[in-house]
Specification:
The protein has 487 residues and is of the alpha+beta class. It contains 15 helices and 24 strands. It starts with a strand and ends with a helix.
């Protein structure tokens, strides 16, 4: 049996798989979100760790271990923790990928085209508060005690995977995988090493950084904080989006995966070359046997989070599942245009200071129209990016695989298919990130020997085909609002 931890933005889920990677059980527990009007978003990393132990203890009662058993980890990327070197306990809240606290740092560094060019050349990314570096700089600017501890080695920096590995191995393993390191903005995604040049650019003086390993490596051994009698290896560690593209086995150029979670992550395989073009993100998908694979990436901050906003803030729905029926019964948005730029617009426009908008309100508009427009905005953001990718980057997305929680809304999935005007492959298995890290763990444990061997683990898909004459005409109106108010 294999265990997989998926530590995501809103919750943590622990999975139990059998030796054929069939899901036997899963348990979830949510954690608190700390937000303020400045756009700061934080998590209590200690709460997250305690939730994991709680879930592991519950699911361990069902586990029958053997010599091949292991633990894999997939996690919310870009979120980072500063934790005590001796105890492993966090000494400040986790800074979440959605947090905008580094914007002034970005503005300052981005004034120099030379700086922008260096960052793009080394990372393939752009300097944006989505990534840890500017937020870390801002945090250390205001918290001198943290800055001094990192400088002196009394505290350690790590993305969520690093923090969990450190805690679960009782402070014996300070490590990360290449996919998580690649998101920090101070890792060279071509040479696959920490970049002293970028650390100097940001003015970051950090005594130690985690050892970077391939995702299929052995990252240490754990007894899950005494839950198990014997230790098992940790293998198969990946950032959630990369784990998903791996699970969907997008191994050929043009293969594209879209994960519809809190945000929407789109990765399109571009092979083993590392282009660094303006206004598009080049991402390290994975490294296997020293061979890197890269993708172009789109980062959409608000997908499922838009539905959560309707629930928590506007309170016009009582639970997200209500949107399925509302979307079916409400045939149009009645002219309402929804732009969920709550924390700025990302790919392909990169306008971090943008704000959200509901446009086109008239006396005949009701809650259902707003809900419909909010869901439509998810599809429209994806269409907007893929149009840009194909027109400007000349990349043809030849197979589109979609996963994530929103796929359970079948009417919306058909609407998305109509909007994209192409066939899409949708899996009803909603936990592809966990699945991908577990598959990677099989390679790390030498249970499977190569990428060809894992083809038998590819999930089955429902195929959606676009309906004739059903392209949503209000997409053009949505683009016009974007053009007139944002671009």
């Amino acid at each position: 049996m294999y265990i997989s931890i998926d530590q995501s933005t809103s919750s943590t889920t622990v999975f139990l798989y059998d030796n054929k990677l069939r899901l036997l059980s899963k348990l979830s527990k949510s954690h608190k979100q700390f937000q303020n009007q400045l756009g700061y978003v934080e998590h209590d990393a200690e709460e997250i760790y305690k939730n994991i132990l709680f879930l592991l203890k519950k699911i361990s009662k069902k586990i029958i271990f053997n010599d091949n058993s292991f633990l894999s980890i997939t996690n919310q990327r870009e979120t980072f923790v500063i934790f005590d070197t001796l105890t492993g306990k966090p000494i400040y809240n986790a800074i979440v990928w959605q947090c905008r606290r580094g914007q002034k740092i970005c503005d300052k560094i981005n004034r120099s085209s030379k700086n922008q060019s260096l960052i793009k050349k080394k990372t393939g990314l752009i300097l944006d508060t989505y990534f840890p570096a500017p937020k870390l700089v801002q945090l250390l600017k205001t918290k001198k005690n943290l800055r001094n501890k990192l400088k002196n080695g009394l505290a350690l920096f790590g993305t969520i995977d690093t923090y969990l590995i450190y805690r679960l191995t009782k402070q014996k393993s300070y490590a990360t995988d290449v996919t998580n390191a690649s998101r920090t903005l101070f890792f060279n995604n071509k040479s696959l090493t920490w970049s002293k040049e970028l650390l100097k650019l940001y003015g970051l003086n950090i005594k130690m950084l985690p050892k970077v390993k391939e995702s299929s490596s052995i990252f240490g051994y754990t007894n899950l904080n005494e839950i198990l009698k014997n230790e098992i290896p940790i293998s198969g560690v990946m950032g959630d989006s990369q784990a998903s593209i791996f699970a969907n086995q997008c191994f050929n150029k043009g293969n594209t995966k879209i994960t519809l979670g809190t945000g929407a992550s789109i990765l399109t395989n571009i092979g083993d070359q590392f282009p660094h073009k303006k206004n598009i993100i080049t991402t390290l998908s994975y490294v296997y046997k020293n061979k890197p694979s890269y993708s172009y990436e789109c980062l959409i901050n608000y997908a499922g989070a838009t539905i959560t906003w309707l629930n928590n803030n506007l309170k016009i729905i009582k639970k997200p599942q209500e949107t399925n029926d509302i979307f079916t019964k409400t045939k149009s948005s009645n002219g309402v245009i929804f732009v969920p730029a709550f924390v700025g617009l990302s790919s392909p426009h990169w306008l971090p200071n943008s704000k959200g908008m509901i446009y086109g309100l008239t006396p005949s508009v009701n809650n259902s129209h707003i809900i419909r427009a909010a869901l439509e905005s998810i599809a429209f953001q994806i269409k907007d990016y893929l149009e840009d990718l194909e027109i400007k980057q000349k990349i043809k997305c030849n197979h589109i695989y979609i996963d994530g929680g929103i796929v359970s809304n079948l009417p919306f999935m058909q609407f998305l298919c109509n909007t994209l005007e192409r066939k899409i492959y949708v899996t009803d298995f909603q936990d592809m990130s966990s699945y991908g890290s577990a598959v990677m763990g099989l390679l790390g444990m030498k249970i499977e020997k190569n990428l060809k061997d894992i083809s038998k683990y590819k999930k089955k898909y429902k195929i959606y085909r676009p309906d004739k004459n059903k392209f949503p005409t209000n997409y053009r109106m949505w683009k016009e609002v974007l053009k007139n108010f944002y671009l």
